[in-house]
Specification:
Blueprint (H helix, E strand, L loop, with lengths): L6 E9 L3 E3 L9 H11 L4 E4 H7 L8 E4 L10 E4 L2 H13 L15 E4 L3 H7 L5 E7 L7 E2 L8 E9 L9 E8 L1
Parallel strand pairs: 1-6, 1-7, 3-4, 3-6, 4-5
Antiparallel strand pairs: 2-8, 7-10, 9-10
Amino acid sequence: MAAEAPVIAVIVAVAANGVIGRDGDMPWRLSTDLKRFKALTLSHPVIMGRKTFDSVGKPLPGRLNIVVTRDHDWQAEGALAVGSLGAALELATAHLESFEPDPAAPDAEAPNTIFVAGGGQIYAQAMALADMLHVTHVEADIDGDTVFPAIDETVWHATHEERVPAGERDSHATRYVVWERG
């Protein structure tokens, strides 16, 4: 039986005016959203550009970290470097296909989602390939220098939405929306 094709999911926090970054970092504090990001992506391959990896500062634990970079000499412990989004998706797919269940949890579901986690150039390329978008809409216009492509509502349909008030360690209220193609 052929393995089911993996789901390609973009995961992003984006301000009302489309901003996702400023000076190589996120222009907000969203502890609540970072917890959701971890819960969603844990055990799944995560693809990001080199600048995004550098802003995170280290590999994300419990996930295959694939970094897209034009620098053929770039390397970082705990991350695999590739030269294109296509190569990253091939590597992530091969990783998912080689999944072996933990003997302590033999009934655990095999991960079948590849997450694309930025930045701007990688998101722009991934939008045409993605099956799903996990978008945290930050309820504010924010100054920044990196933007997310517009979500075309003739292509994407919201299938889940929840309002998230700003928590104690959040700088803004958000609205978490899952968008699916079709």
